[in-house]
Design brief:
Helix content is 31%, strand content 21%. The longest helix has 33 residues. The chain binds protoporphyrin IX containing FE (HEM).
């Protein structure tokens, strides 16, 4: 017997529903897997789930309110320029940013910290965020620090570190005993503190190297994949901060503006492939020094303009490290998913505050 048109319709409908259900379940499973490998889920019976919003609440709890500012790396300056790609990066990734040519850049130089008014001599680390935009409309965003490793391996450890650094409500002081307890529980953090102790902060933004820290997966046009980390290495020679400089609490931004009056500042973008066995999911561990022998010099970053972050081009950019062009993918590092989702919460809160401030200024007029 031939099936009727109505029966065919019903079958088609139910097969469509089951296909949609399968897609929904697959997406849910992939999202769950990401969240799980990202250390982003906890069973309610064991402890309260760590969410991006709770992580940002923890940053906020360590300082007084600074509406409109980034919840970390709050003090910084917008910069812009271009990337002169020499074509060598194409050995490792098919991303169009690595084709020989010039790619415009918007960036931000900053220091870690929750307070946009902090004095520059308190910062032991410098930071560099960049957004590359290629002519085909793709973007590559990154946010790097001047230390090749991170203090913690997981978002949970970062949350605990923020709790240990929280000033006591009565005294307003950080309790060193809490930090000692944290360090005892997290021996992996030692490498970061040792690195800081042996590398005094650079005297300016443009004589520091900056590191991706997290690993990423590059795929070239032939389909070959490699895990990599990258760094940007300055033209200028490293110098430590001098006592005279620290008389100006904003010496980093002031010195940059003065230096740019004499012409642009430059870094080379160096990409370091991993060898089998190098950790791609642990930002607290460096890769063996000999990997640097095989690093690829992909071209020159040129910065020729700096402007205030209050109204500069970087203000409303979220330098989310997971905004990646085709040819670059995240590694299995659990910090990456956490960074992406936490930066989004910080971005949403600060841009909402900016909008509210603009609205109340308008109503006052
Ligand atoms: C789970 C780990 C991390 C969390 C939760 C976190 C959190 C944050 C937050 C909330 C912001 C402000 C975002 C905004 O409002 O636009 C930020 C900015 C930044 N972070 Fe992270 N961070 C993490 C790891 C890292 C690592 C590993 C690096 C270095 C590779 C890094 C480098 C930076 C830099 C350079 C900025 C400033 C970006 C800008 O100028 O807009 N962060 N981070």
């Amino acid at each position: 017997m031939k099936p009727s048109i109505a029966m065919n319709e019903t079958r088609r409908h139910s097969s469509l529903i089951s296909r949609y259900a399968l897609i929904a379940v697959s997406i849910g499973a992939i999202a769950g897997l990401f969240a799980w490998t990202g250390g982003w889920i906890r069973w309610p019976s064991t402890q309260q789930a760590l969410t991006p919003a709770r992580l940002i609440d923890a940053f906020e709890a360590d300082t007084s309110p600074h509406p409109g500012f980034r919840r970390n790396h709050a003090k910084g300056v917008c910069v812009s320029g271009h990337f002169e790609s020499n074509g060598n990066g194409a050995q490792l990734s098919r991303a169009s940013v690595f084709k020989a040519g010039v790619v415009p850049l918007v960036g931000r130089l900053s220091a870690p910290g929750f307070d946009p008014t902090q004095e520059d001599d308190t910062a032991m680390v410098r930071s560099f965020a960049l957004r590359f935009t290629t002519s085909d409309g793709e973007q590559w965003r990154m946010a790097m620090n001047s230390v090749p490793i991170f203090a913690v391996r997981t978002p949970e450890a970062l949350y605990q570190q923020l709790a240990a650094l929280r000033p006591d409500a009565a005294s307003g002081r950080v309790d060193p005993a809490k930090m000692e307890m944290f360090l005892e529980k997290h021996p992996e953090t030692k490498a970061f503190h040792e690195w800081l102790a042996s590398h005094p902060a650079s005297s300016n933004f443009y004589n520091a190297s900056y590191f991706s820290i997290n690993a990423f997966r590059f795929t070239n046009a032939q389909g070959n994949t490699r895990f990599v980390r990258w760094s940007v290495v300055p033209d200028a020679t490293y110098q430590p901060v001098s006592a005279a400089m620290t008389r100006d609490p904003d010496f980093l931004a002031h010195d940059l503006s003065k230096r740019l009056e004499r012409g642009p500042v430059r870094w080379n973008l160096m990409i370091t492939p991993a060898a089998p066995g190098d950790p791609t999911n642990d930002a607290t561990r460096v890769w063996p020094q000999e990997r640097e022998l095989h690093r690829v010099d992909a071209g020159v970053l040129v910065i020729d303009k700096a402007e205030s972050q209050i109204d500069g081009a970087c203000r409303d950019i979220n330098f989310d490290p997971l905004v990646l062009p085709a040819g670059i993918e995240p590694s299995d590092d659990p910090l990456l998913a956490a960074r992406s989702s936490a930066y989004a919460v910080s971005f949403n809160r600060r841009t909402r505050e900016e909008a509210q401030a603009a609205q109340s200024a308008n109503t006052r007029r």
